[in-house]
């Protein structure tokens, strides 16, 4: 199995277009300690020819341009992208579908809830049903978006997309609004969880023994956006675990056996984005890698 990190940042990317938090100021000034990042997505292939995207970020057009494996290869129109698999309906995970509207066949997979959000919004009709099939994958039922790859959705604690929040909002619910994905190829297993509000026994069970884990790395500290003066919400309020602390991801998954663990979906305020920072050193000492765009893995 081949894996490419197309984008490693949370919504807005790094630097965020209007942000001057400490990390973004470093990025805007060209400080080499902060590598710019686009919004999160990975590409997976069993053979290096047919590729599946896990989420379609608003930066997808630029990500394809930066990734030779995803560029057209033959004829007048062509794409090695055979399928897109969605883990939720957040803007930073679905807006890129609008860049895939030029009558190119591929398959789209998501939960019934996520695909329902697309159906309700007519702008996504430009991704024409005549070319793009939509399949609601059920929990507990593996599916194969391309030969050689088998995927399965599982629920993780989360919430509805920001643009669907209302007075009935519940954070940490386990429904079809936020999912993780297990991806198997031969005897190798990748687990992809770009958004997670809590580590439950069921989530731990899915992670155990993975050859590669991509996990929600949105914030380093729960209140860092507030402390940076660029937001009013904690990570918990946004439905994301933080990396650090007794209730953070590093501590919660410390004893879970995983061959390689990578933080993805990293917010622009997260100090672990800074090469050489104490926060980067702490997560790396704990066995984690901080994802960057263009990273490749072979399993």
Shape-level CATH architecture: 4-Layer Sandwich
Order of helices and strands: EHEEHEHEHEEEEHEHHHEHEE
Number of strands: 13
The share of residues in extended strands comes to 15-25%
- What is the share of helical residues? 10-25%
| Tally of distinct domains | 1
What quaternary form is this?
single chain
Tally of helical runs: 9
What does the model show?
This protein has helices at 22-28, 60-65, 91-94, 112-120, 201-207, 224-227, 235-238, 249-252, 278-285; strands at residues 2-7, 41-45, 51-54, 81-85, 106-110, 132-136, 150-155, 179-185, 188-193, 212-216, 261-264, 288-290, 296-298. The protein has 9 helices and 13 strands. The strands form 2 sheets. A 7-stranded mixed sheet has the order 6-5-4-3-2-1-13. A 6-stranded mixed sheet has the order 7-8-9-10-11-12. The model has no long low-confidence stretch (mean pLDDT 95). By secondary structure, it is of the alpha/beta class. The chain is globular and about 50 Å long. The chain has one domain: Ribonuclease Z/Hydroxyacylglutathione hydrolase-like (Metallo-beta-lactamase, Chain A, 4-Layer Sandwich). Pfam families: Lactamase_B_2 (PF12706).
């Amino acid at each position: 199995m081949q894996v490419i990190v197309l984008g490693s940042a949370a919504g807005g990317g790094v630097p965020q277009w209007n942000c001057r938090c400490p990390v973004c100021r470093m990025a805007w000034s060209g400080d080499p300690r902060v590598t710019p990042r686009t919004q999160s997505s990975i590409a997976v292939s069993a053979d290096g020819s047919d590729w599946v995207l896990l989420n379609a970020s608003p930066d997808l057009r630029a990500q394809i341009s930066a990734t030779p494996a995803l560029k057209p290869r033959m004829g007048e129109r062509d794409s090695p992208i055979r399928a897109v698999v969605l883990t939720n309906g957040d803007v930073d995970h679905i807006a890129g579908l609008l860049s895939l509207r030029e009558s190119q066949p591929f398959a789209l997979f998501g939960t019934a809830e996520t695909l329902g959000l697309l159906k309700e919004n007519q702008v996504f009709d430009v991704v024409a049903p005549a070319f793009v099939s939509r399949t609601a994958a059920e929990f507990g039922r593996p599916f194969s978006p391309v030969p050689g790859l088998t995927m399965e959705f599982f629920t993780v604690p989360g919430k509805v997309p920001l643009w669907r929040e209302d007075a009935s909002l519940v954070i940490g619910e386990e429904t079809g609004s936020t999912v993780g994905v297990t991806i198997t190829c031969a005897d190798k297993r990748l687990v992809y969880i770009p958004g997670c509000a809590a580590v439950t026994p069921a989530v731990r069970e899915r992670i155990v023994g993975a050859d590669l884990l991509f996990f929600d790395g949105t914030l380093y500290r729960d209140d860092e956006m507030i402390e940076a003066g660029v937001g009013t919400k904690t990570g918990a309020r946004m439905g994301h675990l933080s990396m650090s602390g007794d209730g953070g991801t590093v501590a919660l998954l410390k004893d879970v056996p995983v061959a390689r663990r990578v933080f993805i979906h990293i917010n622009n305020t997260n100090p672990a984005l800074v090469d050489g920072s104490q926060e980067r050193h702490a997560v790396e000492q704990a066995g984690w890698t901080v994802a960057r765009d263009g990273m490749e893995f072979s399993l």
